[in-house]
Amino acid sequence: MVMLTPQMLRTEFQKTFNTTPTLITRAPGRVNLIGEHTDYNDGFVLPMAIDRAVWMAARPRDDRRVQMVACDFDYARSEFALDAPILRDNAHAWSNYVRGVAWALQVRGVALVGADLVIRGDVPVGSGLSSSAALEVCAATMFVELARASISKVELARLCQQAENEFVGVKCGIMDQFASALAQENHALWIDCRDLSYRHIPLPRGAVFVVCDSRKRRDLANSAYNQRRAECERAARALGVVALRDVSIAEFTRRANELPHLLAKRARHVITENARVLAAITAAEQNDLAAFGKLMNESHASLRDDFEVSCAELDALVEIARAQVGCWGARLTGAGFGGCTVNLVNERDVPQFIEEVTRVYRARFGIAPLVYPCRAAQGSSKIEQ
Ligand code: GLA
C-alpha cells in the first residue's frame, strides 16, 4: 500500500477545488495492545497509534458552509451549513463523523469557520483499527485550527468521543480518540480512563506488533457492545461501586458469588484485564517479551471465555499465530466479534510469520487475512501550508 503524503493531499485538493489548501491535518488509527473493554469501566488501556492515518486538506470559506469530498468513497460530496442545525447525512455515513465533531465543537462554544475539505485515508475501514476515531480527530484538529481556538488535545479527544456518542450514536469509550490525538512515536500510550491522566510507555525492543485482519466483518459489534456496557454497569451497581475499576482482584474473589453467573464473568474480565495492563507496563519497561506476550494470551482467553466477544475466526488467528516461530503472544484487539488480532513477533521472524499465518488461515477459512507489522506513530498533527 502507498503511504499517504501531504503532497498527495495538496494534489487532491487542487484537482477538486481548483485552488491550494491552507492547512493539512492528519490523525492516525490505533491498535490496542492490551486493556480491552476497560475504558468505559473507568479502567486502564494501552494502545499505540499506527502508521496509517486519515488526512484532510482544507481552505476556509467565508459563507459559513462546510463542503467535504471523500476521495476514498468515489469522491462523494456532502455539505452542511454552520448556521443551521447540523443534521446527519445517512446517504454519506462517513460525513457524520465530521458533522458530529462540528456539532460538538459548536456546543462547546467554539466559533467555527466554514471550509472546503478533501479527505483521504489509509486506515482500513471497518476492521477495528479506529478509522472513525481518526476521522473525528483529524476533523476536530482542522476545525480548531481554522477557528484559531485553543483546546487541549485531551479535551479534543473528549469532544470527539461526545460526537460519536451523541451525534453518530455509538456508545464507545475514550480510548480510540485519545490514542489518535495523544500517542507518541515509538511508544504505547497508557491511559487511566477515569481521570484521563496518561503516560507514554517505550515499546519493548527486538519485537514488533503485527496486525492480522481476519476480514470478518463486525456485524454484531454495535448491539453486542452496548449490551456488554450495560452488563458491566449492572455488575458495578450490584457490587456497590461507581465502576468496575473500583474493585480489586482480591475483593472480587471474595464477593463474586454476590453476582449472577453472567455478570460475574463480565466483571472478572474487566477486573483482571485492568491488572494485566499494569503488569504489561512493567513487562514493557523491563523489555520482558515473554511476560508481555503471556499477558496478551491471557487477555485473549478472558475476552473469549468471560467477556464472550471473540469468534471462530479470531480464535483461529491467535492459535495459528502462536504456533509460529518468534511469536510471543496474540490476542483479539478492539471491540471484538471480528476485525483484527494483534501479535508480538520477533523482528527477524516477521516475514515468515506473515507468510505462514496467511497460508494457514486462508486454507481454513478460504479468505486471505491482511497481515502487516505496525510502527508506533505520532498522534494527530497539522501542517500549515
Ligand atoms: C471500541 C471502542 C473503545 C473500546 C474498545 C474495546 O474500539 O471504540 O472505546 O471500548 O472497543 O476495548
Task: Name its key features.
385 residues, alpha+beta, Ribosomal Protein S5, domain 2, Alpha-Beta Plaits, 2 domains, four-stranded antiparallel sheet, binds alpha-D-galactopyranose
What does this entry look like structurally?
This protein folds into two domains: 6-200, 2-Layer Sandwich (Ribosomal Protein S5, domain 2); 203-374, Alpha-Beta Plaits. The radius of gyration is 21 Å and the shape is globular. The two termini are 26 Å apart. A hairpin with a 6-residue loop joins strand 9 (327-333) and strand 10. It has 385 residues and is an alpha+beta fold. The mean pLDDT is 96. The chain is 42% helix and 23% strand. It has eleven helices and twelve strands. Bound molecules: alpha-D-galactopyranose. Alpha-D-galactopyranose binds next to helix 5. Residues 36-37, 39-40, 172-173, 175-176, 334-335 line the site of alpha-D-galactopyranose.
Q: Tell me the structural class.
A: alpha+beta
Radius of gyration (CA) equals: 21 Å
* Main beta sheet strand tally, sense and closure: 8 strands, mixed
State the CATH architecture of the largest domain. 2-Layer Sandwich
Q: Can you count the beta strands?
A: 12
Provide a count of the helices: 11
Q: Would you state the CATH class of the largest domain?
A: Alpha Beta
Number of domains: 2
**pLDDT < 50 runs, ≥5 residues:** none
Mean pLDDT: 96
| Strand composition percent | 15-25%
The hetero molecules present are: alpha-D-galactopyranose
Q: What is the succession of H and E elements? A: HEEEEHEHHHEEEHHHHHEEHEE
